[in-house]
Amino acid sequence: MFLEADGIVPDDLGPLGVFKFRDPSLNLDSVVVVDTAPHGVAAGGVRMLGDVTVKEVAQLARVMSYKFATFDIPIGGAKAGVLLDPRDGRRRAALRSFGRSAASLLKTGLYVPGEDMGTNAEDLAQIYDAAGVKDFSPSPLATKVVDGLPLEDQFTGFGVAVSARTALELAGMELNGAKVAVEGYGKVGRGVVRAIHRMGAKVVAVSTVEGTLYSPDGLDVQKLESMRREYGDSLVLHYGLPPLRREDLYSLDVDVLVPGARMHVIDGARLRSVRAKVIVEAANEPLTEEAEELAFRRGILVVPDLVANAGGVLSEVMARAVGVNDESAIFKFLEQTISSKVRDSLSVGRPPRLALIEEARRKLLTPTSVTDPVRELERRFGK
């Protein structure tokens, strides 16, 4: 069960509601945090981890509020947490239990779940089915797998790669040949590595919970993908190189560092050892506020999570709300939209994430004239 005190401090934005559920038959705890819902609709992923906390879920729900506002998407932010190791044999039963518990939220549309750490499109189908929402059907792209990798993960990874390329250009460098280290070679990390490698970068390091793989000459990306399928997180123990510690990844001599796992893994002390010229936040809020400010003072370009990892969210908006299911059109849209937002966010003359949050809060606290969010999405994103 959730052992920590919630640690949630409400403010002028939210959260709108914190909904905790317990299933004694499975010894299972889960939670949904709806942070904002300006039109009665909020969205965010379902995170299934053995150590997820209510506080973390609430923080992630706030990130979703800011992310939607950053791109002027008229949807509120939310997040769910299921306190279970995704490798646990109770996984399917836990997903269905969560669906039954959260049924009223799903049926009213107050909470629209998505994929997150530990969950995928098939899991969402189980959740909706258990909730009794029979008309749920994921977009055709949500369940499509291309070259062994879910397309949604590729959209997210592509957005991170575009962010890295744009930031390097602003720094007078090129992505082609740049040395890149990626934390978290899992759901999002695989998409990042594939996309950034195809753009010509040299992936010299990846990490999992088991440690870090590092080769200054570059890792074999095809071998990484193959070994990930065979060994999961333990691939770092079988690749053929002596693994480093997980935390060693942050201080490697690279051009681009991509933190892609949990929140606040880089604080001020750790930031002082970072040698990268560019940090691209593939995870949600991986740097503390102190680290964001220190990076700015050191001249390290940090592409905020609110922009860098928005590829999955934007692709789902395009596919599910607007009805665009041409993957090439979505890749083109992501390239244009994310590149433009990266340039804007890195030209404000202060820590970019803090500036984006300030602007997002202003938008969220300003009364809106939007009455039909679906039509507004169609108008903005061009159906």
From TrEMBL:
<keyword id="KW-0560">Oxidoreductase</keyword>
<protein>
    <submittedName>
        <fullName>Glutamate dehydrogenase</fullName>
    </submittedName>
</protein>
<dbReference type="InterPro" id="IPR033524">
    <property type="entry name" value="Glu/Leu/Phe/Val_DH_AS"/>
</dbReference>
<dbReference type="InterPro" id="IPR006096">
    <property type="entry name" value="Glu/Leu/Phe/Val/Trp_DH_C"/>
</dbReference>
<comment type="subunit">
    <text>Homohexamer.</text>
</comment>
<dbReference type="InterPro" id="IPR006095">
    <property type="entry name" value="Glu/Leu/Phe/Val/Trp_DH"/>
</dbReference>
<dbReference type="InterPro" id="IPR036291">
    <property type="entry name" value="NAD(P)-bd_dom_sf"/>
</dbReference>
<dbReference type="GO" id="GO:0006538">
    <property type="term" value="P:L-glutamate catabolic process"/>
</dbReference>
<feature type="domain" description="Glutamate/phenylalanine/leucine/valine/L-tryptophan dehydrogenase C-terminal">
    <location>
        <begin position="148"/>
        <end position="372"/>
    </location>
</feature>
<dbReference type="Pfam" id="PF02812">
    <property type="entry name" value="ELFV_dehydrog_N"/>
</dbReference>
<dbReference type="InterPro" id="IPR046346">
    <property type="entry name" value="Aminoacid_DH-like_N_sf"/>
</dbReference>
<dbReference type="GO" id="GO:0004352">
    <property type="term" value="F:glutamate dehydrogenase (NAD+) activity"/>
</dbReference>
<dbReference type="Pfam" id="PF00208">
    <property type="entry name" value="ELFV_dehydrog"/>
</dbReference>
<dbReference type="InterPro" id="IPR006097">
    <property type="entry name" value="Glu/Leu/Phe/Val/Trp_DH_dimer"/>
</dbReference>
<comment type="similarity">
    <text>Belongs to the Glu/Leu/Phe/Val dehydrogenases family.</text>
</comment>
